[in-house]
Amino acid sequence: MVKPVFHKKYNLLINSIGELLEKSRAQVVQTIDTILVRTYWEVGKRIVDYEQKGGEKAEYGSELLSRLSKDLKLKYGKGFSKSNVYLMRLVYLKYPKFQTLSGKLSWSHYVELLSVSDDLGRSFYEKQCIKENWSVRELKRQTNSMLFERIALSKDKKSVLELARKGQIIEKPRDAIKEPYILEFLNLPENYRYNEKQLEQKIIDNLQMFLLELGKGFAFVARQYRITLDNTHFYVDLVFYHTILKCFVLIDLKVGKVAHQDIGQMNMYLNYFRAEEKADNDKPPIGIVLGAKKDNILVKYALGRISNKLFVSRYKLYLPEREELEQRLKFLLEKK
């Protein structure tokens, strides 16, 4: 009778085989995705070539697309709905050189990217998707929350074009800040009465989504981080560490309008972390006072002469109005 083997080396063998299988399966899925994207791009190319040689137009709803969809489904089965055939044509029009399509993204990623009509925005989301390894679900959430517009509106025209070309590059504290933060995933009704403790708990309950909204590089450290000064206890609502900027990030939550006292308190927290918590290799900490409302003039004067990296941002419990952000970005890009 063969005895069960519980040897440490045997367990290592099992784990190494498991890792190999997982890696191989991932490579197979990636290869299938790449072939699918290539095939659908080629279908789109043939449709456009047919149009350019005097054939019918293949705009959505056209007779040609309806006929193509019906005949392809009859001959080759599923995958050729009219909307999918339209997207195959569109992916070729948006990416006429196949080399510009990323082998790291699936067809489902490209379907979501094609829903972004603005070329600058689509380029940004594609770069971020590759850099941050977003799932299709994460990509959908970021496009719906207008991430590109929210980041772009804090920049000048030159920086917006660079953002679209390269994606978000985090080199300084300002690069990691958004205005506003969108917390629709908390599922708090807009007129619902809640306090800061409840808001904090909701964020902790949805920490994965909150980290996605914060962006790349944020690692959770603690909630209600206690600071004791002269036998008095103070508590920082949320503490993170930014792995790219190499510094602590402190977040204080405010359910109403941010007051100048809130800014002064955060400045005190930053001074404490700089003196007591920062390691030799760490950069100075960053503070974010995150409130439902803020007065820009008050914030301007309250932040005057503060040397710490301290930011005041708003949060919203619902997705922003797309038209409003698009118009503001259009105005920015049209400025000389």
Task: Describe this structure as you would to a colleague.
The protein is of the alpha/beta class and 336 residues long. Among the domains are: 8-94, no CATH class; 181-319, 3-Layer(aba) Sandwich (Trna Endonuclease, Chain: A, domain 1), CATH 3.40.1350. It has 13 helices and 6 strands. A 6-stranded mixed β-sheet has the order 1-6-5-4-3-2, with helices on both faces. Helix 12 (296-303) links the parallel strand 5 and strand 6 (309-316). Helix 1 (8-52) packs across helix 3 (82-94) and helix 9 (196-205) crosses helix 10. The protein starts with 7 loop residues before the first helix and ends with a helix.
- CATH top-level class of the domain at 181-319: Alpha Beta
Sheet/helix structural class: alpha/beta
Give a count of the beta strands, DSSP E runs of length 2 or more: 6
CA radius of gyration is 25 Å
Q: Could you name the key traits of this structure?
A:
336 residues; alpha/beta; Trna Endonuclease, Chain: A, domain 1; globular
SSE blueprint:
Layout: H1 8-52, H2 63-76, H3 82-94, H4 107-114, H5 119-132, H6 136-144, H7 147-152, H8 157-166, E1 181-182, H9 196-205, H10 207-214, E2 218-229, E3 232-242, E4 247-257, H11 260-277, E5 286-293, H12 296-303, E6 309-316, H13 322-334
Parallel strand pairs: 1-6, 4-5, 5-6
Antiparallel strand pairs: 2-3, 3-4
Helix pairs in contact: 1-3, 4-6, 5-8, 9-10
